[in-house]
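for the record, two folds in this file. i put them one after another cuz i was lazy. first one right below, seq on top, structure tokens after. the second one comes after a little note so u can tell where it starts
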Amino acid sequence: MFKRWQFWLGAGISALFLVVALRNLHLGDVWAAMLTARYGWIIPGVAVYFFGVWARTWRWDYLLRPMKCIPLRRLFPVVVIGYMGNNVYPARAGEVIRAYVLRRREGVSISASLATIIVERVFDGLVMLIFVFIALPFTPMPSWLQWMVVAASLLFFGALGGFMVLAVKIEWAEAAYGWAIDRLVPLRFRASGRGFADRFMIGLRSLRSGRDVLMLFVTSIVIWLAETVKYWFVMQAFDFSVPFWVLMLMNGIVNLATTIPSSPGYVGTFDAPGIEILSIFGVERTLAASYTLVLHAALWLPITLLGFWYMGRESVSWRDFSQAEETVDGGQ
């Protein structure tokens, strides 16, 4: 479905992060620590996590309302299928899959829904930075963390500012991308390119209202606090304890790191930063690794299994996934 170079690039980056994550560790000791974990604590963690997924569904519904009002019970399976796609395909392909399934089920154009998904990612990134900023006064700042915070701040604050300008200055935006398409895109692709851009602009409508922007920001905080509560529940399964703000910092750093291209399921890019953050705060490295690996599995497995189940219930096939990229490439 997706380009081979994307797979190998992601696999290489994941391998590099895994080397960092597993250095100076004895895997037998990590496995022994995992065997002694109290896994009953994962159950309430999963429940809180799916509350967060429901909140994600509500936020997406809020972004989609300028185009179509869709009941949450119909939108929730689409969200879950998309997150499952992120877990089993490289390069966050689940975002394209989510937009494709939404178009097939609800008739919302892929380019417009992709715009709303990108806005989601921008707000997610901003909340992750807030989590990091809250912890910074209490945190030793290794150079890699400094560089990550600076780069992420430029990326996400810049993206939000750019999208808000596009959403408010519609005539200016249309003139700018029209000029670029007329001069840079081959003639036979100009009509589809302009149509894609026009529909993408529709997906940014929620950014025209300060009230809507505030709602998106507040719901994003709720979503990521819920996920951090899952971090706390999983921590209860292990013999260590750190303050909640440390888990907020860990959540922020690992999710900023997962924006880096990697293999499916964010292998390595999730684990290495998580182990490093806990080690900074005095958690023994073997215990930090066992916790991080269990947490990663507890985040990955439930929504992936539910996504497979929804695929069957909604009659979504793997062939549909293979068509998603072709549809986007066609400017639909």
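(here's the note) second protein begins now
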Amino acid sequence: MSLRSDSISVIRDGRAILDSVTVELEPARFTAVMGPNGAGKSSLRKTLSGEWSPDKGSVYLDNTPLHSLPAAVLARRRAVLPQEPRLAFPFSIEEVTRIGRYPWRGLATPAEDAAAVADALRAVGLAAPPEALYTRLSGGEKQRLHLARILAQLARPAAAPQLPCFLFLDEPTNNLDLAGRQTCLRLARRLADNGTAVFAILHDPNDAARYADNVWLLRDGRLFASGPAESVLTTPRLSEVFGVPIATATANGTAVFFARDPSHSPSK
């Protein structure tokens, strides 16, 4: 079971912002999606998750055209954390997290819903009490809360078929401090280890190298490279895609990527 695209293109204002992209998301794999600004990363996320329909090509979930599936069915198979989640109402933290349980109405018991909400809030390490208002949270706390909401959505009740789920994260570490960033990525890694197919747009190749199984590099709306993280994340390839010289250093036995200042010459 997988979610795959077949030569999808998305046209906006006469320009292909996605151009003949064929990819596949597999259960129990963490796929990091990288590329410069405007490469098509969020467009690919929106198209694979069903938010957009491709102008050319098709997207399939378990060999069924994605856009033929009812919204409720799709919501039970995939969860999405967009780049900038928006919520303006003064809901409590618990109420926001419970939004993620909406697709399971009629299938989940009250006890399962309550457990899913509590487990999700615990997993993201949100320190504010459940009755605290969303509008009073910091940017990082709001990001953690939206992550809890989609974790609650992915918690399948016993009455539902136990099918693989797909998690889409669009720059999930936005607004997070170092601890929150690692919490988020470790959660995504744990979900992949437990069978979820994870799609995560990341900017730091070090995060991709540490957490991802696969990496897709996009440039100008096309798939520039894809494959296992260790084979895709090379300094020549990253330098070419991002247009800046990338170098590596070794820290505690691990290679660390960094952008090198081309104007800097080592002192002799």
